[in-house]
Amino acid sequence: MALFARTPEPPYYAVIFTSQRTQDADDDGYGAMANHMAALAPNMPGYLGIETARGADGFGITVSYWTSHEAIAGWKRHSEHLVAQDRGKRRWYQHYELRVAKVERAYSGPAGR
Amino acid sequence: MALFARTPEPPYYAVIFTSQRTQDADDDGYGAMANHMAALAPNMPGYLGIETARGADGFGITVSYWTSHEAIAGWKRHSEHLVAQDRGKRRWYQHYELRVAKVERAYSGPAGR
Predict the structure, then answer these.
(1) Cis peptide before B42 (omega within 30 of 0)
(2) Domain spanning A16-103 has what CATH number?
(3) Does any CB of chain A come closer than 8 Å to the CB of residue B61?
(4) Model-level ipTM above the cut of 0.85
(5) Given an 8 Å threshold on Cβ–Cβ distance, is A105 in contact with B100?
(6) How many CB atoms lie within 10 A of CB A39?
(7) In whole angstroms, what is the distance from residue B74 CA to residue B50 CA?
């Protein structure tokens, strides 16, 4: 189940990023950059995991998990991530919402699988 | 932007539900139930909104937003939602992770759009 993040027992932090992509983002370097960011993030201090899904309508949700606010701030300031953020704002995202949340409880299922 | 939840200023709560659907869930009543739940939830006390995305690989993320732990507990106990949860565990989900988190900060972008 590589798509699921193997997070520890709470508490830890989640960055919930919901976005509507532009129609031509895929032809405009989005995929390569997304893959590059997904490869970089696990090297950051305090990284716990990431989960992402995007439908055919271009609406997507990515949730990344971190040990602390400091870890989130460190990733936000990473030089290559800053480039990606800028390109996202200018070219790839029609709209996005970013929420930082403290995970208090967590469950897995279905039981026995 | 109907796909985005119009949440108030934090703090509020997020239920992050990530799931891998079974291959035949769509032929097994999943879509109708998902639509029914999406129609019911907004009538619950403390409901703030919902965002959902699922890729062609069957991996999906649904985040629902609530005013309080009590509101989340009320929705969890709703009779028709209990039926949906049971069917999901038995038939529709290979695996899922459910996390309850307190949203502390939120941003929208890109600026000006």
Answers:
(1) no
(2) 3.30.70.100
(3) yes
(4) yes
(5) yes
(6) 9
(7) 16
